[in-house]
Amino acid sequence: MRVLIVEDERELAAMLAEGLRGEGMLCDVAHDGLEALRRTGEADYDVVILDRDLPALGGDAVCRALAAAGHPARILMLTAAGSLSDLVEGLGHGADDYMAKPFSYLELVARLRALGRRTAANRAPVVLSRRGVSLDTVRRVAERDGRPLQLTPRELGVLEELLAADGAPVATEDLRDRLWDTAVDPATTAVRVTVHALRRKLGDPPLIVHDPGFGYRL
Question: Between 137 and 107, whose confidence is greater?
Fold first, then answer.
């Protein structure tokens, strides 16, 4: 699941991002409404955690803009105002869920996962296959020649990108941009290590090829 945290309290945003990354989610952070709209135009998010009280552009306006654009991300609105009228107003702007501050972190995680499942349910089931490898992109189940593959979420993501490319090379930079959040240092070997692990789990004969200067292909 890829999450955008839109929160101007930088310490809170950093704590949330660190915690959700520990839950296996990809997290990006925006500190004002305009940055939030820019980021949602650059990446496909499953859920946006949106503070209502934001600088530059308020959370309500961001919510309305995303709804008007038909953005597929679910919106979980956070606010210090937790009355019933505030909740109704927030949902009226297009939010899918609403939590008042202070909130329970465990409840937040549970609600995020529920919203993420709703986002995934709206996607058309697609099974990608090539050279004996198949991947159900909704159920996140992969196999090779009928043998189930036990892959991590990141390995599943890399496999999906390679299968979708249908034999064309996928650049390392593209894999990093699509499957890692902005907290990852571009100089790290995270992509190479993940591809190496995926190649090993796919087994023999090897399927993933590295084309220097172009990227990886299957």
Answer: 107
